[in-house]
Design brief:
The chain is mostly helical and 184 residues long. The protein contains 9 helices and no strands.
């Protein structure tokens, strides 16, 4: 019975290991920036390295780190589609936004549109009530769990989860309204 392990020349194995070491911090930071839960970053990075090893013949030449990030974006997009069963993604809307904004080739018009989307999101965040902004800050920027937020607020964690759901909906509606106004 043949092994399914891909055999690369020793030089290629050494090269791969060297580049994994070189780019692992960049990859983890990129995964985290896409909205992946902190406790799942290492697992996804490992998945990226395994897939990169399996697809090594597809790489050719170029920026190995950028190739790894491209693989990560695809895995995260797939994870986003399967999210209902598992919760590795912090905020689906945020992750979708970041995946869109990190498109491979950016034209000046796309960069301008991205800057406008970020500005719109910032405006909408500022329009939230102060307590709502604080909850968003704790949850999505400081990565506190709903239970930890509930302890800070002396409220049940279900209250926090429901509040965050409402706040995300408010942000989404605000961004959509602002986008419609800008497109008129």
């Amino acid at each position: 019975m043949q092994s399914s392990k891909i055999e690369l020349p020793v030089r290629s194995q050494e090269w791969f290991i060297e580049n994994v070491r070189k780019y692992q911090a960049r990859l983890r930071a990129s995964i985290r920036a896409l909205g992946v839960r902190p406790e799942a970053v290492d697992d996804l990075a490992q998945d990226v390295f395994i897939l990169a090893w399996q697809k090594m013949t597809d790489f050719g030449t170029g920026d190995f780190g950028a190739w790894l990030v491209q693989i990560a974006r695809r895995l995260i997009a797939n994870e986003r589609r399967k999210e209902a069963g598992r919760r590795r993604i912090l905020a689906g809307e945020f992750t979708d936004f970041m995946l869109r904004s990190l498109a491979e080739a950016k034209e000046p018009a796309e960069q301008l549109a991205q800057a406008e989307e970020i500005g719109t999101l910032q405006d909408c965040l500022e329009r939230l009530p102060p307590k709502g902004r604080q909850m968003i800050q704790w949850r999505y920027f400081e990565q506190l769990s709903p239970g930890a937020i509930a302890s800070r607020l002396d409220r049940p964690s279900n209250y926090v989860r429901q509040s965050l759901l409402r706040l995300r909906r408010l942000l989404l509606q605000c961004v959509e309204r602002q986008s419609l106004r800008q497109n008129r």
